């Protein structure tokens, strides 16, 4: 079992604390079946560009970056994007600590390592260029709520936040609007633009998000003569987080006949 990055430095007043959904990502992407798939996808390609949207504490992207050779078969360039500037700062520290600890523990000088580029404050894929992402990870706000909270103003990031502001920032990490899918649907519609030809996205769903319907919809996206869109649940499905059952769906373009 690969070690989980430390987030002991993170203040959870305004940042989502790692929970069952976070650890499902770690377990799924480091499982033998998924690492085999990722190795076949990326270890003969140029260095993959890995992006996590809404990293919160940074535990997932730190794990993937620190254990890149085991998971992807190669080093990676990684980046985090979050609407919460406090989460951006926490993610940067979490990843740097994990990379340092992995380097200190390594006995090899030839395996190289990943580079964490930055933590950007932004709304989903807005800071990214079309077709540049190889691996996208998204643990979305998936809880059904009456609405999706408004994004924070830039002024909140430059001073100590109030209790009300902290509560609002935290709500951004879980409040998913109608069916818990308002934010996720926005991201799904951007995938054909943001992923490159070999790109893959891992998105978490709860039962209330109707993942079977979502997968059927994605599998019906417009294809070409050479490839078609695929979406399937990977790893351990039915993971329970409180009253919810969770699953991670892999979304990618698959060459026809493969």
UniProtKB/TrEMBL annotation:
The keyword S-adenosyl-L-methionine is assigned to this record: yes
Keywords associated with the record: Methyltransferase, S-adenosyl-L-methionine, Transferase
This protein's record includes keyword Lipid metabolism: no
Family matches, as InterPro entries: DNA_methylase_N6_adenine_CS, Euk-Arch_PrmC-MTase, SAM-dependent_MTases_sf
EC number(s) from the headed UniProt entry: 2.1.1.297
Biological process according to GO: methylation
One MF term in the entry's GO annotations: peptide chain release factor N(5)-glutamine methyltransferase activity
Family: Belongs to the eukaryotic/archaeal PrmC-related family.
Name of this protein: S-adenosylmethionine-dependent methyltransferase
Native organism: Exophiala sideris
Higher taxonomy: Eukaryota, Fungi, Dikarya, Ascomycota, Pezizomycotina
Gene encoding the protein: MTQ2
